[in-house]
Design brief:
277 residues, mainly alpha, MetI-like fold, globular
């Protein structure tokens, strides 16, 4: 009886997952395919077309295009802000869940982090631009890196808190009895165990930083603009370069996709490791 009911449920789950995958994948494939079209082919809506590399060549190698510079800028901002988020969030999570803070302090701090994460980034962009200009950091990587770190830190703190709480206290106590200092305890005991959390948090933080648009638009100019800002500039006053925009969007997927593939492997590997091991 149970076998008879399990089969339809399993089939229904597969149908729902396939439908969800189609909803997610089809728009991405359409954008990638649009990058290989000509402007006329895309605007006429022709279903069959001859793939061309004109848009990719224009985006990457044209003298009027700064896309490679924007790509470099996004990598600098994304990697640096992700590293800062991981360091600060890991130390903060360990402090909140291992040091002798009153319970109400921990709850208020986490609640404030959650509320701050719910504030739209565009609401903070004006204040950050004013502060950056006041201290001479306007149109610099430093201002954007700090802004992205602040934006993504609440999420990183919550995620790292989940993994830090899973570290057995017995391991930390045994290391402390053996004379391990706090930095050594974190480096030799805690970090290897929470490596899956670091990988997952790092990937998510990088993706959010890579895709952030509103703050980057306000804090950067031509020399420091990131990929989302560069893609938006293809929508000009009298013309929208759809195929070049699609080609840029297709190229922008690559770093996040590579990180997700690498991160997924380490996450699965780390989650299967026991704490005693």
């Amino acid at each position: 009886m149970r076998t008879d009911t399990a089969a339809p449920r399993q089939l229904g789950s597969h149908v729902i997952l396939i439908a969800a995958a189609i909803v997610v994948i089809v728009p991405v494939l359409w954008v990638v395919a649009a990058g290989f079209r000509t402007q006329i082919s895309l605007l006429t809506g022709a279903f069959f077309f001859t793939p061309v590399l004109t848009s990719f060549i224009e985006v990457l190698f044209s003298k009027t295009s700064d896309f490679l510079v924007n790509y470099r800028n996004s990598l600098i901002v994304g990697l640096t802000s992700t590293a800062l988020c991981l360091v600060v969030a890991t130390l903060a999570a360990w402090s909140l869940h291992r040091m002798r803070w009153p319970g109400w302090v921990v709850h208020i701090f986490l609640a404030w982090a959650l509320l701050f994460h719910m504030i739209p980034p565009i609401a903070l962009a004006g204040a950050w631009f004013t502060m950056a200009r006041a201290v001479g950091l306007d149109n610099t990587f430093t201002a954007l890196i700090l802004a992205h770190t602040v934006l993504n830190l609440p999420m990183a703190l919550w995620l790292m808190g989940v993994f830090v709480r899973e570290v057995p206290r017995e391991l930390e106590e045994a290391a402390a009895i053996d004379g391990a200092s706090t930095p050594l305890l974190l480096w030799r005991i805690v970090l290897p165990i929470i490596a899956p959390g670091l990988a997952a948090t790092g990937v998510l933080t990088f993706v959010f930083s890579w895709n952030e648009f509103a703050v980057a638009l306000n804090l950067t100019m031509k020399q420091t603009a990131t990929v989302p800002v560069a893609i938006a500039k293809f929508a000009q006053d009298f013309e929208i370069l759809y195929t070049q925009m699609a080609a840029s969007a297709a190229l922008s997927i690559l770093p996040a996709l590579i990180l997700l593939l690498i991160g997924q492997r380490y996450i699965v590997k780390g989650l299967t490791q026991g704490a005693v091991k």
